[in-house]
Amino acid sequence: MAAALAPGAIPSPPEEFARFSLGPLTIHAYALCILLGIIAALWLTLRRWKARGGQSDVIWDVAIWAIPFGIIGGRLYHVFSSPDAYFGPNYDGTGDPIKILYIWNGGLGIWGAIALGALGAWIGTRRAGVRLSAFADAAAPGVLLAQAIGRWGNWFNQELFGSATTLPWGLKIDPSSPNFPAGYPADTLFHPTFLYESLWSLAGVAALLLVDRRFKLRFGALVWLYVVIYTAGRTWIEAMRIDEAQMITISGITARLNVWTSLIVLVLALLIFLFCLIRSRRMKGEDFMYLPGRAPAGESVQDGVEEAAAPTKESGATAGAHATPAEKAAPASQEAKASPEPAEAEEESPYPTADDVASPAEEAKVPEAPKQN
């Protein structure tokens, strides 16, 4: 299991890179990675939302709810899925609950971040008058981009790495680090699971953008595709990790809690994605961005608007060719009805005119009798 430090091995950063002082403040690289991820997610989501015809203010209205909720949810999930450090083994009270506030130690659990972050986004979208599914579809690639960046915080902390490996890109962990597993030689290399997940997430961002550009997914289809992509990668990456975690046995198979969670969510997300995909195709022409009655004045963002446009000249000519005689005569009668009457009738003369006086010949003319058959 041991391996000498290979030329292509990934070194861990020195301690002074993981945290440094800025005046009276201590800046943690883990927190900076999370912050950079949030900024990148907001930037990409803003571009995508505006490209879909949305107003930029909506992004900030939703972000002030989704981001704090996501951080709180992520921390709570981590604490209760790895409770020993905070409450002691079997909650015997020997832990240190104040460490719950130290998000740079242990980090955030993605499932809690997604769950409470979605709740915060729902509150924000309801207040802004937009559909949660529309906002989530616009934000999905940005959220995955944030995860790709945030994972580098594990590298700075030298944590959450995988099992030992002899691969040339193995990760070198400082033997003096509290996260270095007991019983391993000092020169052991480990799978850089942070890098695997970061690269998987970046590939997922590219896939989501390409799929959305090609198929114009709506009504939540894209965000559930994001969940499918992420959980598919998280399942095998999580299985490689050797850090302490809660183990669950199902049907005789024992695996980490996050492995089972990823598998279950993957199956559910795939089913929901297929449902949303069908719904997205059936609801072309529907307003997919705003809640009923909440669209800004003078705006209507719809799918398939171009398909509902006025008929072309060719289609009009074709329709005319198949019209009945009564239908062809209808426009002429409508034009006659629509023609304006003279604004003022001419005043009649009190004296008879030449047209009013019949000639003697005309008066003497006798009408012809009708012919008998």
Automatic annotation (TrEMBL):
Biased composition (Low complexity): 316-342
Pathway listed: Protein modification; lipoprotein biosynthesis (diacylglyceryl transfer)
Residue span of region Disordered: 301-373
Source taxonomy: Bacteria, Bacillati, Actinomycetota, Actinomycetes, Micrococcales
Cellular compartments per GO CC: plasma membrane
Annotated residues for binding of a 1,2-diacyl-sn-glycero-3-phospho-(1'-sn-glycerol): 151
Role this protein plays: Catalyzes the transfer of the diacylglyceryl group from phosphatidylglycerol to the sulfhydryl group of the N-terminal cysteine of a prolipoprotein, the first step in the formation of mature lipoproteins.
Protein EC: 2.5.1.145
NCBIfam families associated with the record: lgt
UniProt organism field: Galactobacter valiniphilus
Main location: membrane
Official protein name in the record: Phosphatidylglycerol--prolipoprotein diacylglyceryl transferase
Gene Ontology terms describing biological process: lipoprotein biosynthetic process
InterPro entries registered for this protein in UniProt: Lgt
GO MF annotation list: phosphatidylglycerol-prolipoprotein diacylglyceryl transferase activity
